[in-house]
Amino acid sequence: xxxxxxxxxxxxxxxxxxxxxxxxxxxxxxxxxxxxxxxxxxxxxxxxxxxxxxxxxxxxxxxxxxxxxxxxxxxxxxxxxxxxxxxxxxxxxxxxxxxxxxxxxxxxxxxxxxxxxxxxxxxxxxxxxxxxxxxxxxxxxxxxxxxxxxxxxxxxxxxxxx
Length: 162
Ligand SMILES: [Zn+2]
Hints:
Elements: E1 2-6, E2 9-12, E3 21-25, E4 29-32, H1 40-49, E5 57-61, H2 67-70, E6 80-82, E7 95-99, E8 108-112, E9 115-119, H3 138-149, E10 155-158
Parallel strand pairs: 4-5, 5-6, 9-10
Antiparallel strand pairs: 1-2, 2-3, 3-4, 7-8, 8-9
Bound molecules: zinc ion (ZN).
């Protein structure tokens, strides 16, 4: 399902279990996360509805590397993939990247204008990401939540809508 967030920002969310995918149209077409393989067909049909071919996506930013956020990376053969480790190499002046580990080892959130793409760190209605995975760190999560409290945003675009 396609939900237009702003003039150049779309949220794609799916019936099957998998993360939301966000499409942002700047100079290049950018995706934030690519969801799970169960959502692959829905993702492809949503892109088709938006008249976007997978090979037109040039940049993928991963909020973290849990399977339900990354399993369709390989659909986007012309995209460069950036996660926390490589994010320093990505020059998009409109984006601010915020390290927010705790749910996993390497969570990042992305601030674009008044929109926060929060991955699995924070969700709507005050819910926060799980910290019971082996790679989680509840103490770091608390620090990340404190950090996010200081970020000013109006629209939350989380990794899952539930
Ligand atoms: Zn996750």
